[in-house]
Amino acid sequence: MMKAGPLELGDAPKSSTPKSGVNRGVSILDFILRLIAIMATLGSAIAMGTTNETLPFFTQFIRFRARYNDFPTFTFFVVANSVVCAYLVLSLALSIFHIMRSAAQGTRVVLILLDTAMLALLTAGASAAAAIVYLAHKGNTRVNWFSICQQFNSFCERISGALIGSFGGIMLFILLILLSAVALSRR
Amino acid sequence: MMKAGPLELGDAPKSSTPKSGVNRGVSILDFILRLIAIMATLGSAIAMGTTNETLPFFTQFIRFRARYNDFPTFTFFVVANSVVCAYLVLSLALSIFHIMRSAAQGTRVVLILLDTAMLALLTAGASAAAAIVYLAHKGNTRVNWFSICQQFNSFCERISGALIGSFGGIMLFILLILLSAVALSRR
């Protein structure tokens, strides 16, 4: 590694300047996108994880209270977003490494693999939650699942809003994988 | 095309044998995995799309009939699987191109981008459907959504089974993206 650095810097003016420069730019963009994705997934996890509505009235049989963990799907959503957020924080190290060593290949392949797995996890969490949010809004009269959004208004707004960060994160991951592929093809 | 084969075979003993050979192997594996993924997603789409159960009794008010398109999520599942399946069939052309021209880079980057987008679509469809299938099995007593699997037994078995092909397809896509990244890093 220590040998490769100076060698490359020495080479730079002759042949590999544009490619190395482009790859460094790509790596910096990768780093910035990861920071945005951290905010997005963290925001989603917190927004969903703090959702809790108790209605100001109750009957003998039912206490009108809705929390995110009444729905296993929302628990999964919070877990998925937290895991992806933690992964993104750790992956910043690799991203910085790529800014410094823009010719690295092996670590980029590893990063693509991990990014792809995390994209799948985040998409799974976000779309499973979206399916339940849709049901909460619309219900399904065929099987007598009624909408709960008339009663739990702020609960519904909150769980709908929490999806945004997650779907933003999905877009960012697709961009991140594309950037890594471009960097790999350009070395 | 007919020229490339002999030419490359002629080159082989001199310099580019290992890398070119590995990339050709990777491309052939890519092609095979795509064929399997086509079967998996097609199977899922058909299994879900033909799900239809009418119970042999009915009341004045309700006819006990369950079809996949009573649930918008399952319609999305069928559409997502069909789109991904059609994409995979088209992508076979690129895969064959990569077997013949194992040094190609630009098309591999395009393939990674498209594969990633399709992975996200397939994961979204599969996990949204999984969330509803879970609800159909377990229900959610907190919000009075009752399980429908006692009544619609074969319907529930069918929609659960249809998920398998989709989740298998997700695994295959992650492998496909990894293979493309490996091929890019090895040229």
TrEMBL record, chains A, B:
Q: Which UniProt keywords apply?
A: Cell membrane, Membrane, Transmembrane, Transmembrane helix
- Domain of life according to the entry: Eukaryota
Region listing for Disordered, in residue ranges: 1-20
GO CC aspect terms: plasma membrane
Any transmembrane segments, and where?
Answer: 31-51, 71-97, 109-136, 162-184
Q: Where in the cell is it found?
A: Cell membrane
InterPro entries of this UniProt entry? CASP/CASPL, CASP_dom, CASPL
Main location per the UniProt record: membrane
Q: Which Pfam families match?
A: CASP_dom (PF04535)
Q: How does it sit in the membrane?
A: Multi-pass membrane protein
Casparian strip membrane protein domain residues are: 24-170
Q: Which family does the record claim for this protein?
A: Belongs to the Casparian strip membrane proteins (CASP) family.
Please describe the quaternary structure of this protein: Homodimer and heterodimers.
Protein name from the UniProt record: CASP-like protein
Q: Which species does this protein come from?
A: Actinidia rufa
Question: Taxonomically, what lineage is the organism?
Answer: Eukaryota, Viridiplantae, Streptophyta, Embryophyta, Tracheophyta
